[in-house]
Amino acid sequence: MRQIRTRLLTAGQWCAALSLFAAPINKPATTALIVLSLFFSLLGADVRSRWQAALREPVVIGFLIWFAVLFASALHSTLLHDAPAYRESSLWSCIYPALMASLLRDSRWRWRALLAFAVAAGLVVLISYLMQFGLVPQRAIAEATPSMRNTVFKEYTQQGLASLILMSMLVAVALKSPSPRLRKILLLVAAVVLCNVVLVIQSRTTYIVLLPLLAYWIYRLVAHHLNGWRTLLVSAVLAVATITALWSTPSIRERMVSAVTEEVDDYLTTQEPTSSGIRLWLWQHTLPIIGDAPVFGHGLNRWEPIYREQMRTIPDSAPFITGHPHQELLLILAEEGTVGLLIFTALLLGLAYHASKLGDPQKGILTSIVIIYFAAGLANGLWSNFTHRHVFILLVACIPAGAFPWYAKDRKIESTP
After folding, report:
1. Tell me: the pLDDT tens digits for 6-27?
2. Are 386 and 27 within 8 A, CB to CB?
3. How many Å apart are CA 32 and CA 92, to the nearest integer?
4. Rounded CA gap, 79 and 340, in Å?
5. Which end of the chain has fewer CB atoms at under 10 Å, N or C?
6. Does residue 207 contact residue 253 with C-beta atoms inside 8 Å?
7. Is the pLDDT of residue 232 over 80?
8. pLDDT per residue over 255-284, tens digit each?
9. What is the sign, positive or negative, of the torsion defined by CA atoms of 45, 51, 54, 59?
10. 149 Cβ partners below 8 Å, 6+ apart?
11. How far apart are CA 299 and CA 88, in angstroms?
12. Long-range pairs for 12-15: beta carbons < 8 A, 24 or more residues apart
């Protein structure tokens, strides 16, 4: 019986690792693998000790605190509005870190999970390039929506953010690689991935994320060679130069300067429902919703019905109706109030602090994920989206505490008499 339960545990570990492969690619496969992971975790060996250990991990504790906030928000929604929200996947997905921790107890398993994500994101980048050069046909949706050109499985923002995470993983591992040759290869691949984001996908959200993300990695690269005030000075100069160079590229200048200016002008003059105009409209009409319940919000999943009710009194507002306000902080303020936003901010800062205490390359990977999530959330709704939410949660849950496999191996060899 013990042998059977051990094999079930191993099966659960593979399902958990493969869920990160599926997350940036396919929603049903991601859900199926998570359900199988839970099934095998509960039936596998040492279930009690594994879950007890999982519940002591800092990341798991943080997500359980946010689960408690969202559960209280769902209760608030039920009691005041008779609108139960307990089935919301955004609520129960906060349990995933505990599930991952109960299965991936060994750092090697967590590195395998991160590798699974990197392989999936890398394949997407490769296919995207093949689409760009006409070697793989474009998806049917690209004919009706040109912005979806060169997207493989997901829309351009989802694919772009996953690619930025892949780029960050490659740079983080490269900086700690014991092999100069491998370091150069990893940095070259990271540059190829960056070119795909900037020149091929051309998502505005990824362009917004690029500013703080590149600034962070430039600082890390400089700090790898310099110390003290010179690090800050050289980092600042290189960051300004790099961002200026990127900003001058035709794709970024067109998408972030010319197009945004035109869209805002069209919205202000004719109420044209452009991408930028819709966001301005959403943010403007979310503020009164926040003002009606500033402390505790209206409850989980209440923004959309309140907003739709508000739109019924406004003629020609149909093009501006969406499922979320395209701004993470505004959504939290509307549904969980100022109290919820303060807790969310504290948890995000806690996650950044936890990242700072890790060794490399885990430190760089987790810090990049936090930067990407926060920056992208300024102009988009990540928690409301299945792919964004699952990629973020699963990656954060699988950041290992132990060293990268080859570092551990090298230290073992060096310590051998």
Report:
1. 999 999 999 999 999 999 999 9
2. yes
3. 15
4. 18
5. C
6. no
7. no
8. 666 677 777 887 788 777 888 888 989 999
9. positive
10. 131, 138, 142
11. 12
12. 12/36, 12/37, 12/39, 12/40, 12/41, 12/44, 12/103, 13/40, 13/103, 13/104, 13/109, 15/40, 15/103
Task: List for the chain the helix, strand, coil content (%; round to 5).
Answer: 75, 0, 25
Token reading at 286: 């979310």
Q: How far is C-alpha 152 from the chain's CA centre?
A: 18
pTM of the model: 0.90
Residue owning tokens 């967590």: 110
Measured distance CA(234)–CA(332) in Å, rounded: 38
Half-sphere exposure for 250 (CA within 13 Å, toward CB): 2
Residue 255: half-sphere exposure toward Cβ, Cα within 13 Å = 19
Q: Transcribe 175-236 into DSSP letters.
A: HT-S-HHHHHHHHHHHHHHHHIIIIII--HHHHHHHHHHHHHHHHHHHHTT--THHHHHHHH
Any idea what the Cα angle at residue 316 is, between residues 315 and 321, rounded to 5°? 110
How large is the C-alpha radius of gyration of the chain? 22
Angle at 248 between CA 242 and CA 252, to 5 degrees: 100
Question: Which one-letter DSSP state was computed for residue 149?
Answer: T
Q: Is 197 exposed, middle or buried (0-12, 13-18, 19+ CB in 10 A)?
A: buried
